[in-house]
Amino acid sequence: PMDDNNLRLLQPGIVLPCMPSPVANYSPASNHTDALTFSGKLPRSVRIMAPGQIDKDLSINEGVAVARMCETAFPATVKVALGGDLGRIERSLTLNGFANATDDLEANPQVIDCALDLNAAAFEEAGQHCRKAAGLPSFSLGAAVEASASFAVCG
């Protein structure tokens, strides 16, 4: 397990968000045996931040910033799900990012991959993961990006 994850998250100047309540009948995270799986994370605190389609309502750079908002939700949710102990993370398993994009946008990986760099910075080698990056034409609550993840945990 990584025991300096809290410090690494603070070094890049990242502020972990307060996690809003789910908008429907689901759990933000599910912890079973040695796996922690997350529901899709939207860029929101109380309301959706920067709604719209990438390459129509938002630029690619704005999409990258929105994707990073989603990514900061994972360590914040881990802290809640694991009682504040990010040191229980052994490895990132999957990180999936989906951009609300126009039909012809081919930069979906560019939008998503920039956000995933945060995971590598926070968890170093244990932050290496499998990923999916895709563009879809419509998202819940009009969000520009949604992300999901799973982690191996100990204890």
Please describe the topology of this protein.
Elements lengths: L4 H6 L18 E4 L2 E4 L21 H22 L7 E12 L7 H16 L6 E7 L8 E9 L2
The computed structural class is alpha+beta
Determine the mean pLDDT: 80
Total count of helical runs of at least 4 residues: 3
Proportion of helical residues:
25-40%
What characteristic shape results from the CA principal axes?
Answer: globular
Beta-strand segment tally:
5
Low-pLDDT residue intervals, each spanning 5 or more residues: 1-7
The helix-strand sequence is HEEHEHEE
Largest sheet: 5 strands, mixed
End-to-end Cα distance: 10 Å
* Radius of gyration over all CA atoms, rounded: 15 Å
- Content of β-strand: 15-25%
What would the keywords be for this entry?
single chain; 155 residues; alpha+beta; five-stranded mixed β-sheet; 28% helix; globular; disordered N terminus
Task: Describe the protein's architecture and organization.
The longest helix is centred in the middle third of the chain and has 22 residues, at 60-81. This protein has 3 helices and 5 strands, in the order H-E-E-H-E-H-E-E. The protein has a 5-stranded mixed beta sheet with strand order 1-2-5-3-4, covered by helices on one side. The protein has 155 residues and is of the alpha+beta class. The model is unreliable at 1-7 (pLDDT under 50).
